[in-house]
Amino acid sequence: MTKDRRNRAWYGKHDKDGFIHRSWMKNQGFPDHVFDGRPVIGICNTWSELTPCNSGLRELAEGVKRGVWEAGGFPVEFPVMSLGETQMKPTAMLFRNLLSMDVEESIRAYGMDGVVLLGGCDKTTPGQLMGAASVDLPTIVVSSGPMLNGKWQGQDIGSGTDVWKFSEAVRAGEMTLKDFMAAESGMSRSKGVCMTMGTASTMASLVEAMGMSLPTNAALPAVDARRMALAHMTGRRIVGMVEEDLVLSKVLTRESFENAILANAAVGGSTNAVIHLLALAGRVGVPLVLDDFEVGSDIPLLVNCMPSGKYLMEDFCYAGGMPVVLRELGAKLRPAKTVLGGDISAYAEGAECWNRDVIRSFADPVKPAAGIRVLRGNLAPKGAIVKPSAATPALLEHEGPAHVFESIEEMKANIDRDDLPVTADTILVLKGCGPKGYPGMPEVGNMPIPAALVKQGVRDMVRISDARMSGTAFGTVILHVSPETQAGGPLAQVKTGDRIRISASRGELTHLVEEDELKRRQAAWSPAPPHYTRGYAKLYTDSVMQAHEGADLDFLVGKDTRPVTRESH
Ligand code: FES
Ligand code: MG
Which UniProt keywords apply (predicted)? Predict the structure, then answer.
């Protein structure tokens, strides 16, 4: 046992403080010898009945513990705030940074040497990684895993993606409300995260591509016995990582972020990955900017999963999962260390594809050039993004008149009006949905198609906002416009009838109004009063950075790895 292991400052002391640290732990029945200096492994758990996607994590924690004990470590499970994407108002994103603070301070304050992060639902994975990165102990991820494929009326249905489709079908009069309500139970029929390539499975896929989890972690269904075995093996591995001092920053390097960007394109991953990777890079100290996402722009879509394709995560797992994607990326992957200590290329070794329609090759992709495109121009000086794989190709080069909604309430109150003056060429603009504006930057950027147009058969149109959209959503939706309206970004100056031009191929987003006129509008503009004047939401609103910087709180950027020397008694 190494003498300088972090836990010795808690459990290795022969004084009043050591007595206190050990004695109270012993009330759980731990014998003397577990305090002998062996690696103490924190199991950071976001289990909650209010985060149904993470409801399988208590069992997985038991699997991790088996592995930790087996490898000679001492596992201790602790809860942190849990963020249930589908349950929290106004948006779970408001609390991602709060979770990260909970994770960071819990890891730092307690006497652990390594950490296993148990998360899954959208914000839990990035929030946990961000917090862990700011302490920088040996760290490894076990994800919830996706739900089994949704099944309804003999068909596979996908989390989120089919909710958007069904709800449009109801509005078009093509689906009854009775059928709509009945589909709920078939959509979510096991524990686990959304089984589309939404944000949760995207982040799990990128975690695997960054070498932060064991191979196959992303796609194994939540209820597959092999996920429990993976948890066990992860418990064994984290003990080794502590012995090797393989801290998180040795795995999360610039190269691993680039691999995540390549993988995000290949899997047709969520636009939310952009914001989470930027924030995470800020914690680790890796320089990463929005334009770096262009390294993935010519990578084709290889994984044929909703919302960009047709299959679901269960199919992706049975086809071979992320190891096959990493094998396809092959020489494009940057050399980067993983939690196993070797290079990421080892994750692809021996990977075989069992279904070529689910995971395609570069020679026969689902779609060409699938990576996130960054747009800039006088409407988004700091950038905006669009996901071509989920968009209508013809609309990616488009000019049209704006129809503006000044707030989410105005949009909801008017979108179904029969006399809304819009055509399929109209560009819908939604303001006030950025990090400061909502606050929390919700997933409302994929505004519904106006009812009048739905009835004409229109299923996609250009939509622009400072919001995000769900990773399960689709459409020609321009997101994360930065700076946001509430921060005085130029989106605030758009009026109904103004013309806007987008060109994804040239990376442009242009407000076609004279500069003098825009200056006049800017001078007459003032921000809306803040929604919250106290508590965490005030702290958030006062400190949150813009989307192109990852929407972290400004004082959380970076890390503090100094030992905590002061005792509480
Ligand atoms: Fe939790 Fe999709 S809502 S993973
Ligand atoms: Mg989401």
Answer: Iron, Iron-sulfur, Lyase, Metal-binding
In this structure, are residues 449 and 437 in contact, taking their beta carbons and an 8 Å threshold? no
Cα gap 260→257, rounded to integer Å: 5
Ligand 1: which of 48, 95, 122 to mutate, most ligand atoms within 8 Å of CB? 122
Which residues on adjacent β-strands are paired with residue 151? 156
Query: Strand runs (DSSP E) across 473-542, as ranges?
Result: 477-482, 499-503, 508-511
Residue ranges for the chain with pLDDT beneath 50: 1
Residues 220-278: tens digit of each pLDDT: 999 999 999 999 999 999 999 999 999 999 999 999 999 999 999 999 999 999 999 99
* Cβ proximity of 80 and 102 under 8 Å: yes
Look at residue 370 in the predicted model and tell me its pLDDT. Answer: 86
Report the largest interatomic distance among the alpha carbons of the chain, rounded to a whole angstrom.
78
Decide: helix, strand or coil at residue 93.
helix
Q: Could you tell me if the CB of 198 is within 6 A of ligand 1?
A: yes
Query: Measured between alpha carbons, how far is 374 from 529 in angstroms, rounded to an integer?
Result: 30
222 lines ligand 1 (CB under 6 A): no
Identity of residue 479: L
Measured CA distances, 527 to 436, 437, 515 (Å): 10, 9, 21
Cβ of 218 below 6 Å from ligand 1: no
The structure tokens 């680039």 sit at: 258
Pair type for strands 139-143 and 397-405? unpaired
Q: Which residues on neighbouring strands pair with residue 213, listed in sequence order?
A: 141
What phi and psi values does residue 57 have, to the nearest 5 degrees?
Answer: -75, -20
CA distance 304 to 307: 9
| pLDDT at position 3 | 58
Q: Which two tokens stand for residue 159?
A: 């989390």
Which numbered ligand comes closest to the C-alpha of 222?
Answer: 1
How distant, in Å, are the alpha carbons of 204, 222, 310 from that of 226? 16, 9, 25
Distance from the alpha carbon of residue 193 to the mean position of ligand 1, in angstroms = 5
Phi, psi angle pair for 471, to nearest 5°: -65, -15
Does ligand 1 have an atom closer than 6 angstroms to the CB of 443?
no
Domains of the chain: 38-149+189-348 (3.40.50.2300), 151-187 (no CATH), 373-531 (3.50.30.80)
Q: How far is the CA of 205 from the centre of ligand 2 (A)?
A: 15
Q: Which protein residue has the closest C-alpha to ligand 1 atom 2?
A: 194
Q: CA 407 to CA 399: how far, in whole Å?
A: 23
pLDDT for position 1: 46
Shortest-distance atom of ligand 1 to CA 53: 1
H-type helices in 37-176, by residue range? 57-70, 96-109, 124-133, 161-171
